[in-house]
Description:
By secondary structure, the protein is an all-alpha fold.
Amino acid sequence: xxxxxxxxxxxxxxxxxxxxxxxxxxxxxxxxxxxxxxxxxxxxxxxxxxxxxxxxxxxxxxxxxxxxxxxxxxxxxxxxxxxxxxxxxxxxxxxxxxxxxxxxxxxxxxxxxxxxxxxxxxxxxxxxxxxxxxxxxxxxxxxxxxxxxxxxxxxxxxxxxxxxxxxxxxxxxxxxxxxxxxxxxxxxxxxxxxxxxxxxxxxxxxxxxxxxxxxxxxxxxxxxxxxxxxxxxxxxxxxxxxxxxxxxxxxxxxxxxxxxxxxxxxxxxxxxxxxxxxxxxxxxxxxxxxxxxxxxxx
Length: 298
C-alpha cells in the first residue's frame, strides 16, 4: 500500500471524533430501547461493530487529512459514504423500535435524536469540505462564493433530515407502511449521494475552481429535494392532516426553486454568449504554436 502524504492531524482527529461520537449516541439509543438479556446482546453487537468501523476509519481519516490542503476530495467522499451508510442503518433500527413501541411517547428523546442528526451530519460535511484549508483559493470573494454555495448543501441536508424525522417523532395519524418505507429510503439515498456530488464538483474543478460553474448539485437538488420534499410535505398536510409539517421549510423550498431556476437561466445565457470569446481565445492558442516552430527553424 502506498504511504499517504503528510496528513493534517487536527483535521483527521476532528472528523474521527465527530463520527465516533455520533455513532456512540446512536448506540446509546439502540441499547436503551432494549431490555433484559437482549440489551446485553445489542451492547456487545454495537461495540464490536464500532471497533471494526474504527479500524477502517483510522486509514480513511488519515488520507482525508492528507488531501485537505489539495483540490481533491476523493477520500472525503469515501468517508462520507461510509459514515452515512452505517449511521442510517442504526437510525433505521431506532426508528423501527420507536414504531414497534407506540406506547412510548418520550417526545424529548425523539426530539434529541433529531437534534443530534441535525448537528452531526451537516457539521461533518463542513469539516470534510474544509474551505479554510483551501490554500489554492486566495481570493476572498471566490472563497465566500464557495462558502455560500455549500451553505445551500447544509440547508438541503437539514431539509432532508426534517422529512426523515417525521417518521419517529410523535404523530397523531401514522403514514401507510409503504409511504414510511419509501420516505425513509428516499432520504437515505439523498443523504448518501448529493453531498458526494457537491464534493466531486470541488474535485473536478481543481485548483482553478470557478464557483459559478458548479451547477450539477443545484440542478440535482432542485429536482430531488426542493420539488420532491415540497410535494411530500404538501401531501402529508392535505391527505394525512399532519400538523407537524414545517411551513418555514416549505417556504424555503419555494424560494430555492425560484433562486436556483434564475441561477440556471443566467448560467445558460452566459454559455450562449461565451462561444465568440472562447473562439478568439482558441484561435490565439492555435496560432501561438504555429509561430514557435518558425522561430526554432530560423
